[in-house]
Amino acid sequence: MAPSQSPSARRRKGEKPAGLRGNVTKKSKSSASQPEPAGPLMACLWTTMKFLLYGFCVLLVPPVLNLAALNKEESVLSEYGLPYDIGWDQTLFLNCSGKGSPTVILESPIGQSSEVWFAVQPALAEVTRVCSYDRAGLGLSDRPHKNITEEDRKRRGPESTVERMVNDLHYLVTSSSDQPKPFIIVGAELGALVARFYAQLYEEEVSDIVLIDPLVEVLLEEDGGVWNEMWLGHLLPSSISMQLSAATGLTRLGLILKLLDLPIKAHNVPDEVVLRQKHLMCRPGHQSASVDEHYFINESFAQIRTAYKVKPFPSSVLLPAWESSVEFLMSIHRNAKPVLINGSDGHMIYRKPKEVIDIVKKLIRKWREVNQRKNRSTDRKETR
Ligand SMILES: *[C@@H]1O[C@H](CO)[C@@H](O)[C@H](O)[C@H]1NC(C)=O
Ligand SMILES: *[C@@H]1O[C@H](CO)[C@@H](O)[C@H](O)[C@H]1NC(C)=O
Ligand SMILES: *[C@@H]1O[C@H](CO)[C@@H](O)[C@H](O)[C@H]1NC(C)=O
Ligand SMILES: *[C@@H]1O[C@H](CO)[C@@H](O)[C@H](O)[C@H]1NC(C)=O
Ligand SMILES: *[C@@H]1O[C@H](CO)[C@@H](O)[C@H](O)[C@H]1NC(C)=O
User: Fold this and answer.
1) 3-state class of 140 per DSSP?
2) pLDDT tens by residue, 43-70
3) What is the pLDDT of residues 319-328, one digit of tens each?
4) Which position among 178, 191, 270, 371 has the lowest Cβ density within 10 Å, counted as fewest Cβ atoms?
């Protein structure tokens, strides 16, 4: 955007060429009228050397620049959460705010970290406790540690699959940070798979799950494999190119030149969220975790199919984007309640946060009412 804007703006004002343009013309003039010291051969060598030198700088400067910037930004960013050790030498970044039961846990979309909840979390924190966190490898959380025994790996599930994510989350919110139970788990896209799997494994800890634009296990088989093609042909390759671009420092360059868009496109995105997004776009570890989540999606789907064979899924609230996902989830979840919102998709958690907030608040009120009634009836029994 910006590069096309500024020249036209200059033209409109009819100004003399500004700094950048001035330099470019000067450079091209000087290289054209370069004094040729010893004939065409030397000139040719000279030009080749210059190109090699430029090439070297172009290859080397962006990654070095990027690393320096990443180091500088990290201290600022680590203020937006606390590192919790969940065992196996694995640290996850958790940010909890507010007081009260039930605790709302926010589970991010595929390849994204906790800042997508910037609008939802503070609003819910006014009425209850809310936690958002970065899954292993994403945000400031450690990469999934592969140094665990084969036995543990079988029990906790392979890295970057839903089973491991659920296992990590369980340790994070129970033994490691001890959040008040029960939990309302709000999951978007891949986060919805995590919410369902968690509720399936630890039903007694969960009062409700809310599924926003959920990825469902039949997705890649639907519509004659259109989604599978899309996944293999577009989503996975684009996450891989994001990783390469981050590692080579090209993303940093692209952001500086304003050629790249940030993942969260909405109004009123706070400065700290913008900073976080820029940092994470340039952070190779974060991008590589995103690639892994995309890459192992089939395995995650297989795990949730197995989980369903054990018992039916608990009740849930659906905020669907596709009708087919609604039909499918209604068929396998007890009492699933779809709430159709106009234009609901993965972006609604920051574009239409109010809808999400209202639904969760309703669930909180419902749980409290039921719980108070239970309390009263147990009180009566005790006094009798
Ligand atoms: C959670 O994040 C908010 C900003 O989004 C920050 O103000 C707050 O200090 C963080 N809480 C913790 C415990 O780090
Ligand atoms: C793996 O973990 C063991 C102990 O759990 C530790 O002694 C060893 O150094 C670790 N290896 C690596 C490569 O981190
Ligand atoms: C998922 O698994 C199916 C069956 O093995 C395969 O055809 C498909 O290409 C896989 N898709 C992805 C995204 O890995
Ligand atoms: C959804 O939006 C369309 C137009 O964009 C409108 O006609 C329709 O009434 C809306 N439905 C609801 C339930 O708001
Ligand atoms: C129900 O009782 C328990 C323990 O007696 C208490 O901690 C809890 O806050 C009560 N719940 C409500 C909703 O009043």
Assistant:
1) coil
2) 777 777 777 777 666 667 778 888 888 8
3) 665 666 777 7
4) 178
Q: Which ligand is nearest to the CA of 370?
A: 5
**The CATH number of the domain covering residues in 81-373:** 3.40.50.1820
Dihedrals φ, ψ of 142, to 5°? -60, 155
Strands (E), 244-382: 317-319, 337-338
* Beta-carbon contacts of residue 60 (< 8 Å; ≥ 6 apart): none
Which ligand is closest to the CA of 352, given by its number?
4
What is the rounded distance in angstroms from the CA atom of residue 135 to the CA atom of residue 145? 12
| H or E element at residue 95 | strand 91-97
Q: Is 220 in the pocket of ligand 3 (CB under 6 A)?
A: yes
**Token pair for 316:** 């849930």
Instruction: Decide if pLDDT at 8 tops 70.
Output: no
Q: Which atom of ligand 1 is nearest to the CA of 79?
A: 14
Find all residues with CB under 8 Å of 345, minimum gap 6, and list them.
Answer: 213, 321
The whole-angstrom separation of Cα 355 and Cα 344 is: 10
